[in-house]
Amino acid sequence: MKINPPKFIRRIFPDFIWSLPNSRGEVYLTFDDGPRPEVTPWVLEQLDKFQAKATFFCLGKNVELFPDLFQEIRRRGHAVGNHSYSHVKGWGMKTGDYVRDIDIASDLIHSNLFRPPYARIGPNQARVLAERYRHIMWTVISKDYSKRVNGIKCIKNVVPYLESGAIIAFHDSVKCAGNLFQALPVVLQAIEDKGLHSARIEL
């Protein structure tokens, strides 16, 4: 299994969850930075077509802007996680300020799952947050956010590494929409073709 995050980050944070090995053929599609009305409803429809479940790591500010869309994610049976309120980078930020931003989001999202934006989190920040949250990272990231990546490359970044336990990171943001619209249906079909299914993260 290919693990995209740098090895030194995994050594620093051994308690972070990078995959969820299981014997049930479950993979875990995740979507960061939403909800956004331009993208998230389309993602939900694609997931419904394949009877797939996913985990949405939401920004508190977007939940505040689009509460009905956030509730629709939950209504359709998907899990939600905290991706901070304002997409803050932990590096170079005071621990108290960083934790406060995540806790503000928590008041809106109500989840014990947390994914740090950009994976930029300091050891002390991680230690404090671990008292209340499970840090969910990823096994492989589509890189749908990159200007140097197109939809075909996103597919190639993901499909060869689909196996039971893999956590796959996409983004339901406007910035990533073009790549996501091309890649997600192909990835969902590949999951089905491999005899796997996408499940929500429940810890």
Account of the 3D structure:
- This protein is α/β, with parallel strands linked by helices and 203 residues long.
- Helix content is 38%, strand content 14%.
- It is built from 8 helices and 8 strands.
- It is globular and about 45 Å long.
- The two termini are 22 Å apart.
- The mean pLDDT is 95.
List keywords for this structure.
alpha/beta, 6-stranded parallel sheet, 38% helix, single chain, two-stranded parallel sheet, 203 residues
User: Helicity, in percent?
Assistant: 25-40%
Helix-strand makeup class: alpha/beta
Strand content: 5-15%
**How many strand segments?**
8
Overall residue-averaged pLDDT value: 95
Major pleated sheet: 6 strands, parallel
Using the alpha-carbon principal axes, give the shape: globular
Number of helices: 8
Low-confidence stretches: none
Quaternary state reads single chain
Order of helices and strands: HEHEHHEHEHEEHEHE
From the N-terminal CA to the C-terminal CA, the straight-line distance is: 22 Å
In short:
By secondary structure, this protein is α/β, with parallel strands linked by helices. It has 8 helices and 8 strands.
